[in-house]
Specification:
11 helices, mainly alpha
């Protein structure tokens, strides 16, 4: 009741949702956003219409495939994530056709690609399909946040899946409602993770 206005949008653009999700694998969000900004600024096209001259839209599949390995390195993207992104760019047409599939089938198809697991497929499905049930299992913080907020103590992924099972097929919607309600709890017990810089190695 606190957020009756909440809607789960969908872009219908799979690759544009998948690439930033791959960048977010195994790193802190700040590092992923910095890498996305660097790559899109360098290889994206100017935004159409009246827009600031520096504004860019994400690279096309062809542009992604042309990015050399050292540019990923300079953007602090490790070789594993870079390979995954290039592999996705090579399969862009097939990925875009997933919009026509049922959400479960689309997520399963994404997970058949090397480097795409349940978390990345869920994050992509949330953005591209508006998938209300795409639960981000494997997220570094999510299970702990759900546990602290609903139970008063941290839980792990299997416990989160069990706890939210009665809410299927609206598990992601329930998590978003928690997040935007302002009621979430996530006590911090130590310093934030440091961001390693691959270019310094």
């Amino acid at each position: 009741r606190k957020v009756p206005h909440l809607r789960l949008g969908r872009t219908g653009r799979v690759l544009e949702a998948l690439m930033p999700a791959v960048l977010e694998q195994r790193v802190v969000g700040k590092d992923a956003r910095r890498a996305w900004r660097k790559l899109v600024t360098a290889y994206g096209a100017p935004a159409p219409g009246p827009a600031p001259s520096h504004m860019r839209i994400p690279p096309t599949p062809e542009a992604w495939r042309r990015i050399p390995s050292w540019e990923f390195h300079l953007a602090n993207v490790d070789p594993g994530r870079a390979r995954t992104m290039l592999g996705c760019a090579q399969r862009a047409d097939a990925l875009e056709r997933l919009v026509a599939k049922a959400p479960d089938a689309a997520r399963a198809a994404m997970m058949s690609l090397p480097g795409i697991g349940i978390w990345t497929a869920a994050e992509t499905a949330q953005r591209a399909f508006g998938d209300a049930d795409a639960l981000s299992v494997g997220d570094y913080h999510l299970a702990k946040i759900v546990g602290w907020t609903l139970l008063g103590h941290p839980i792990d992924d299997p416990q989160m899946v069990e706890l939210l099972e009665p809410l299927r097929p609206h598990r992601h919607r329930a998590v978003r409602l928690l997040e935007v309600s302002g009621l979430t709890l996530n006590p911090r017990f130590g310093p934030r993770l440091a961001i390693p810089h691959l270019a310094d190695l």
